Description:
The complex is a heterodimer. Chain A is an all-alpha fold. Chain A is 73% helix and 2% strand. Chain A has helices at 3-29, 53-75, 84-93, 95-117, 120-136, 140-160, 173-196, 201-224, 235-253; strands at residues 38-39, 42-43. A two-stranded antiparallel sheet of chain A has the order 1-2.
Amino acid sequence: MSDKAHLRRQDFWTAIVLIAASILFLAKTAQIPFFKADAAGVEAGKWYNSAALVPYGIFVGILLLAIGLLVTAIRQGGLPQRELTGNVAAWATSMAGTRMMAAAAIMLAYIFALVPRVDFIIASALVICASIYGFHQRRGRATAIALACVLVPATYALVSNFPQSSWSVAHDDDWVTLISFFLLSIGMMFEVRSSQGRIDGYLKAAPIIAVFVPLLLVLAMAFGFRQNVPNRTGLIFKQIEYHYYVNVKPWLAGGGAK
Amino acid sequence: MFEFAVTQFASFGLVLFELASDPITYVYLFGSVALGIVFGALPGLTATLAVTILTGFFGNKFPVEQSLIALIGAYVGAIYGGSYPSILLNIPGTAASAATAMDGYPLAQKGRGGEALGLTTTASFIGTLIGTFCLLIFVWVLMAMAKQIASPEKALLALFGILVSGTLMSSDLVIKGWIAGLIGLAMAMVGLDPILSEQRYIFGWSYLMSGFQVVPVLMGCFAIPQILLGLQTGPLTGNPTLVGRILPNWRTIGRNMPTIARSGAIGVGIGALPGVGEDVAGWVSYGVGKSVSKEPGLFGKGSIEGLLSSETANNACIGGALIPLLVLGIPGSPPAAALLGALMINNVTPGPTIDPMLIIRIVAILLMASLTMLVLGLFMARIFITVLKLPQTIFLPVVLVLTTIGSFSVGGGTNDLFLMVVVGIVSYALIRMEYPIAPLVIGVILGGLFDETFRRSLLVSDGDLSTFVTRPGAAILVGLNLLLILSQIPPVQRMFRGLTSRAATTAAAPPSQSSSET
Lengths: 258, 518
């Protein structure tokens, strides 16, 4: 199957999704007052003043373009055939598919589970180390181990501290993530040596990069650029912040100059 | 008029002196231009991402005058930095330098990589200067005109920007570019509407009341897909060969000055088009350079003219892209959109009401950034070349952490992170299906402006749609929008092709035949 035919098949399904989405959003837009717009207790009352006017135009536009895309896709050989499920399954089990899904799963676990709940330095160290180990070499076993090392603490953090009210409180999920990072850092060296015979220089450096990059970033962000950083009550950041304000800052303000 | 020009140049001189005499300027400039070059040189990282990540770092805690030094420095550096992997590895560092690889890599293969890098450094410097000069001149002309631009023109200009961007940035079907632009517009509709404060598509999530924030959307569009694609591909690295001495060849530059001037003008012109970025400028200039060259056969085989055409244009585009941004608040390119995001965070509204001194300061920063780029490019190129050896599987996880903390810090906290990831995954899917992402970003940024100005036009005219054709400027813009749409409809294209081929046949007909007909 040529790339263009493959692309047109994708276009066919995208067009279907876009048509469905635009109809859904047109229905949602219908809930916004159009011909009789009342807002903030004032009867604005004209169609051209309605908040629905531009969205109607946009979603009708998407609908028409999606129909155009559908017609183009069908004309250029994009009509779906029976092997669609097989193609999707083949991609999902291919090396590219599994690597992409593993990368996406690590990213989702990091953003949705770890960053809101776990100390940023520890969570980032784990994700950097896992991503380098899991994707630097094209080995399915390394990718699977890396994925597991991120998913276990992420699931624990998500399950044990799900509600937003418990995000900013210190928890044992910091320790679970830290242990996972140490296990991964040591375990990957043994795994690579046993399967490859020698350890790549980049993999040797991975745990060091993984610790120092987020550490320096957080320090620069919090104390250099004076920006907000995630999870200020985390295991490591809480200590850094405490020592900065109790020891370093007073020393910089006067003690150091004496 | 003359007095006005003298006043402007005097103010520019004063601001430039003030900037140049402040040591902190150099700290920001050298740091940001070097960072920009590294981002440009690493395939997968873009100028937009460099500017967006720095926006996250500087946020609104620094004076906007200082933030702009870092952001513009990174922008200039990244557009130039893309030429390193293009020339040495045949892998464009950024889309803007894709055309540079056409002749840069063959030159490197012939052992002239050092010469090629010296020439691109000089051409990028001259290109940025051309763009800066045009920005200084045209921004005031357009600023005077912008006072005549009312809501109908603004709405139509925003629509034109999205359509042009969708048309020119599509690598597959144009319809996909337009769909991407409309998806961006639809995303901009989320939140409270700008006139009646009516809730739209909130779905019970209070965070969405303030709409989609620009920085997380930009990071989602430009960082997340690259991270996913890069990790999926694996370590993509090259071994850049020894390139020889990296020096500007002034004689070659002098001989090719017409090419540089023409490419600079093309770059500025394309940059000034809303939403069309440096990559289009590079390719158009390369194409024009080939068509007017005395040696078109050399293009693609190591032509110096080809190299200078693309590299001058993409850097000249920077100044051009800032013209619509500063005059109308409509970004001329995706990195300019990121700059707009930074300005918005700092409560600076570009347009006719912008502080004139800020424009002069931006011009002065551009000049100093291009000088810094020249110095770094000539004296530190070997350091940047070593960066090319870094596999993407090492730096992409670091970029994930950078974008996370950058996106988190700009205001919305974890909600911004969630938005970034969702937008990123949608963008990844769109990129895989060959949808351009730039129109989507332009749509998100211009959506609010379009909605507000379109409805305000109707409000003022009491619902009379003729307001879009009775004003001369609006009528021209309606015409341009319609022409752009019609030019992409197949029956119209066929009719136009028929007309042009008929005209060509008539013109090619023997004179005797045509005289007999007359």
